Amino acid sequence: MTRNMAEKVIVALDFDRPEAALATASCLRGAGCRLKVGLELYARAGLEFVGRLTEQGFSVFLDLKLHDIPTTVEKTLRRLVDSEATLFDVHCLGGLEMMTRAAELCHGAGKKLLGVTMLTSMGEEGMKAVGIGGAMEEQVLRLAELAWRAGLDGVVASPWEAAALRREFGEDFLIVTPGIRPAGSAANDQARAMTPAAALRAGSSLLVVGRPVTGAADPRAALERLWD
Known about the structure:
The protein has helices at 3-6, 18-28, 39-45, 48-54, 70-80, 96-108, 124-129, 136-150, 162-169, 196-202, 211-214, 219-224, and strands at 9-12, 34-37, 60-66, 87-91, 112-116, 154-156, 174-177, 206-209. By secondary structure, it is of the alpha/beta class. Helix 6 (96-108) packs across helix 8 (136-150) and helix 8 (136-150) packs parallel to helix 9. The protein is built from 12 helices and 8 strands.
């Protein structure tokens, strides 16, 4: 895998111990990928941990999926954007005003903001269970349009919706897709998964990959094998 391909990958550091996350980061140093810090690691290591990753040369996506009233999200982001992370996210279901205020704050700090549409662990039956009718793609496009109107840089969505999102919102809209699984790997809790190559062909901008890389004996070798 070339460095250009690695730059399209965000490795999810889904660990409960900072030491394990740092060990994986050390294996991946210089490979060209980005890193993601989610809720589990953030709860354990805190915001300062982002700086320990950027010191190793990584660009960091702080994936906390903020979803609250506009003022609370804005105040929280005001603290988060002071960190070295370059990419953040909020839930699109928080609404237009919340996303607009969040985008203005992030952009004022020189950071980018994504809107989370529907979690890749959820299928249409799961949508119905929480009172959301219709097809998954329709719901994702509806939420993505809100994010676009609010001025967000892009959305988080499954690769299954990437082609429709790309047609609707153009080449400059970031489409960040979890649910990436190399051929032959387990889907785990991802209901709408796709291989890395297929996701890029569908229109994904950046691919979030977790266990296929972090669970490998050699994470760097696993990263390089993603397109095999």
